[in-house]
Structure formats: C-alpha cells, structure tokens
Design a protein that fits this description.
Elements: H1 3-23, H2 31-53, H3 57-66, H4 68-87, H5 94-113, H6 115-118, E1 122-127, E2 137-141, H7 143-169, H8 172-198, H9 207-211, H10 214-224, H11 236-242, E3 246-250, E4 256-259, H12 261-266, E5 298-304, E6 307-315, E7 325-331, H13 333-340, H14 342-367, E8 376-377, H15 380-395, E9 399-406, H16 409-416, H17 418-435, E10 441-446, E11 449-455, H18 459-474, E12 478-480, E13 483-485, E14 489-496, H19 503-519, E15 525-527, E16 532-533, E17 539-540
Parallel strand pairs: 8-10, 14-15
Antiparallel strand pairs: 1-2, 3-4, 3-7, 5-6, 6-7, 9-11, 9-14, 10-11, 12-13, 16-17
Length: 544
C-alpha cells in the first residue's frame, strides 16, 4: 500500500471512530451539520483512497470526479457547524441549510461525473508520471472548479475570522476548543490552497485529503478531554433576548450597549441600543457607582406609569476599568397589588385549605373502601361503632348486624377460577348496596365475608331482608367459561341490645349464627337468641 493510501485509510478509520464517540455525547449545537461534516470528509477520503490506489487512468479520473461531493459539502458543513456552535444554538431553518449543502454537493457531483460532455470541472487530464509515482495525472481546471474554489475560500475566510473572534472573547474553558476547531479546518484549507495555487503535492498527490489526518486527531483530543461538545457554548445573547425581565446594559461612555425585548416593551417599543442612557430620563441608577465595582449591587423600586419595577443594578463583568453596568427590571406591580389586598391572599389560603380538606376526605374514603366491591372495608367499623351504639341508646331502637358468608367459596374458585369468585363477590356487593336504606352500612369484612349494619331496624325485618337477598343471589348464577355457577350464602343475625350487650358481642354472635347456618346445611339465615342470665352473671348466647 502506498504511503498516501495508508494515510487516507487512517483518516477514514479515525473519522468513523470520532463520529461514533461523538454520538455518545448527546445533543449539542449544530449536531446535524457536524455529522454531515464527518460524513463528507469520510466520502472525500474514501474517494481519494481509491484514486491513489488505482493505476488505470480512467479509474483514477472516476474517483477524482466522485470526490467532488465531499469537496463541496465538507467546507459548507464546517461553516454551518461552526456558525451554530459559536452561537450556542442551532441556526434558524437549520434543516434548510443542511438541505442546501446536500443539494450543492449533488449538483457539483453531477457536473463532475458528466465532465466529458462539457469540461467545466477539468478542461484536460494528461499523464504526469514520475519515477516514484508512474500513474500520476495532471488536471487542468475548468470554470466551475475556479468558481467553486472562490466561493468556498471566501466563506471559509469569513467563518475563520468569526471563529478567531469567538476564541478571543470566549471564556477560558471554551477557548481551547475554538482554537482546535480552527486548526482542524485551516490545515486542510492551507494544503488545498497550496495545491491549487502553487501546484504543491505530497507523496505525488493532492495534499488536501491527506491533511484531513489532523481532523480526527484534534477532534478526538477535544472530545476525550470533555471540552468539545460536552461544554458547548451557550448563546448568551439568545438567553438575554428571551428573558422575561427587562435587561439594559450601559457601557462606560454612557451609551446603551444592549436592551432586550422586555426592556424595549417597558419603554414603549423604542429602539434603545446606541442611545445615551441619560436620554431615558430614568431615576433608577445607583447614586454611588463605585460601590458596584467593589462587588456590591444596588436594588431599588422605580415607577413608570401604572407599573412598578424592582431594579437591580450590577456590574456586567469583572473588568473594573470597563465600568459597564446592567440594569435588570422586574415588574412587581401585581405582587404589590396582591400584597395590599389582604382579602385576596386570605381567600387564596381558604381555597387551599378547602382543597386540602377535600383531598383528606378522598384519601380517607380510599383507605376505608374495598377496591373490588366498592363497599366499605372493616376499617370503617373503628370510626362508626361507638356512634351507632350511642344513637341506638339515645333513640331506644335496635342496631341489627347481618353477617353473610358465601357457601363453598373455595370450591367455586378451584372449579371455575378466581374470576368467577370475584364476580360472585361483586354480585353480592351489588345486591347489598342496592338494598341499603339511609343510615345503613355494608362492609366487606375480608375474603367472602360481608356485614350489613341496620340502625333503627328489628330482627324480624332484618331476617326478611336477608331472605330476600338470598333469593335474589340464588336466582343470579355467575356466568363462567364452564357454564353458570349457582351461588348461595349463609347469614347470621344479631342485634344490640336485643341479643348482645355491646357492639363487639353483637358481631361475635352474628358470626356464630353464620357458623350455625353452615352446620345446618348452608344457604339459610340463622338468628341469635336473646341473652339470658346464668348463675355466675355471664351473658349467654344460644343460636336458633
């Protein structure tokens, strides 16, 4: 392999590796144009590699013409990338610019590939052998070649000047990457100028693609040091322009150097930059400017029409002799009005309190609600048991508890699946919910157990309603994939103070009545008998 081909192979491999490493960085200004730059440079280097490696003149001319896409799009992509990177943000209509670069490259490529028809790129191509490079060709350039070179050199010069200016004024952390980017572009550019203007060759070949060997090296160093792309410059001017507060920068000679859109709005849309600060007739400047340059800042209020502003005055930068200051105006009119109107803020606090109370109620409801059936869960009993007993004592009416337990629930789950079991629970919960009267509470105690509390009811009425529930449930079998499944329940009834002396005893008696119903064959309702006095004074509960 010829030395030039080896160098070009290194350029291609280095460019691919650098691009792969860059893709891991993420987003940065001008990312699309940067990738275009890498792709175009790689296109150029690959074409040049085959040109150097070929010995047939026709093949060398073909690859030389093929390289023109990269020759055109590489400098354009570099200019677009550097413009966006220096700005610190993508260019407006960035996709349009990228499309223009691709179109320009394809247009010149088409002209180059049809050169034999018009000779606009190469007027003539003749052998120019040397002992070291016997297959070397000499190209005489046409008008399109010179027009393209003039345009590229002109815009490259402008971009180089702007990059130098950015490097001079950039913070130290960004200066190194600007210099590196400039050098990576200038080395191939100088090599190209030396070839086109002075006919200088390296290893018998156009030195431009060979000079691109510095690009992956410099880019790789910058990326590896976490400077390039990871520490992309920020468009300070764009940030200032979009800031909602008015920002006004006054230079040492008293002229306005910067005024963002918010500041121009404060002054009725007038153009402020370039005018003397004294012409504004403001009174918000500091009385003693020297205090600012000692590291302090000055804050005061300023009235303009019906609006009130908080004005913060600070030094623009750390260069003491510049004596440039910035005024940041924040509109606090609404804040002051709200402060003066105490009832407004009080109302806001009341609304927030009401919202918090509603939220607490919702959380309480969620904590005491069974997610499957929608009924209350057993936690509700902690809150209502004492109240229900007190009410029963106060009005002299009974509090009835009806405890229900599905029959053969485990067999239902094992035979038809857990969905059938859930459907059965939901069906019973629906029957109970629809039959509740004002003040009554239905609870899912857990598993297949339910409880209905009936204030102001009596045992016979509760028995009749439980029998009605049993009939309804039995008449509504659960639909399963294996056919309808009949469901039944056993129920136990107890009442305070008829059969129990406390809320807890009432629940215990109702549960025992359920067990009695189970033992008696299931699918029935059993009522606890009224308590009697034993000789030792204990309350007994006999089930019927």
């Amino acid at each position: 392999m010829q030395p030039a081909a080896a160098i070009l192979a290194f350029v291609v491999v280095g460019t691919v590796l650098t691009t792969w490493h860059t893709l891991r960085v993420g987003s940065f200004p001008g990312r699309t144009d940067y990738l275009m730059l890498m792709a175009s440079g790689c296109w150029w280097a690959v074409s040049a590699f085959f040109d150097v490696s070929a010995s047939d003149p026709a093949a060398k001319i073909f690859y030389s013409e093929l390289a023109w896409y990269g020759i055109i799009t590489t400098p354009i992509s570099w200019m677009l990338f550097m413009t966006a990177y220096i700005r610190g943000s993508d260019l407006p209509n960035a996709s349009l610019h990228t499309g223009f670069a691709i179109a320009a490259g394809l247009l010149v490529l088409a002209i180059a590939m049809t050169n034999d028809l018009h000779h606009l790129i190469y007027v003539a191509v003749t052998p120019d052998p040397t002992p070291a490079y016997p297959h070397q060709l000499l190209y005489q350039h046409g008008p399109v070649f010179f027009a393209a070179m003039i345009a590229i050199y002109f815009f490259m010069s402008l971009t180089a000047i702007r990059t130098i200016w950015a490097a001079i004024h950039a913070p130290q952390v960004h200066r190194a990457q600007f210099i590196g980017l400039l050098v990576s572009a200038m080395v191939p550019w100088v090599a190209n100028a030396a070839y086109n203007l002075a006919g200088i060759r390296i290893l018998g070949f156009d030195p431009t693609p060979l000079a691109y060997v510095v690009v992956p090296m410099i880019y790789g160093i910058l990326v590896s040091r976490n400077q390039f792309l990871s520490l992309a410059p920020v468009a300070i001017s764009a940030v200032v322009s979009a800031h909602p507060d008015g920002i006004l920068v006054v230079s040492a000679n008293g002229l306005i150097a910067e005024a963002n859109a918010a500041m121009r709005t404060i002054f009725d849309g007038k153009q402020l930059v370039g005018k003397a600060f004294a012409e504004l007739g403001t009174t918000f400047g500091p009385i003693d400017r020297s205090s600012l340059f000692g590291g302090g800042e000055f804050v005061r209020r300023w009235q303009r029409g019906e609006r009130t502003y908080e004005v913060r005055t600070v030094v623009v930068d750390a260069v003491r002799h510049s004596q440039s200051v910035a005024y940041v105006l924040r509109d606090i009119t609404d804040y002051l009005r709200a402060q003066e109107s105490l009832h407004v803020s009080t109302r806001l606090m009341e609304e927030r309190l009401e919202a918090n109370l509603r939220l607490q109620e919702q959380l309480h409801e969620m904590a005491h609600r069974d997610s499957l059936t929608g009924l209350n869960n057993r936690r509700i009993l902690e809150n209502i048991s004492d109240r229900l007993i007190d009410t029963a004592d106060a009005v002299g009416r009974s509090l009835v508890a009806v405890s229900l337990d599905l029959d053969h629930f485990k067999r239902l789950n094992d035979t038809y699946g857990h969905k059938a079991g859930d459907d059965a629970l939901v069906a019973i919960a629906g029957v109970l919910s629809r039959s509740l009267r004002p003040g009554e509470v239905a609870v899912r105690m857990g598993g297949e157990e339910f409880l209905v509390l009936m204030p102001h009811a009596d045992i016979e009425e509760a028995r009749a309603r439980a029998e009605a529930w049993r009939a309804v449930i039995r008449a509504q079998p659960v639909v399963t994939s294996q056919g309808p499944a009949e469901i039944t329940f056993s129920a136990g009834i107890s009442a305070y103070p008829d059969t129990a002396a406390s809320f807890e005893q009432m629940l215990q008696q109702a549960d025992k009545a359920v067990y009695a119903a189970k033992r008696a064959g299931r699918n029935r309702v059993v009522v606890a008998r009224p308590p009697g006095e034993l000789t030792d004074g204990r309350i007994r509960s006999v089930l019927s």
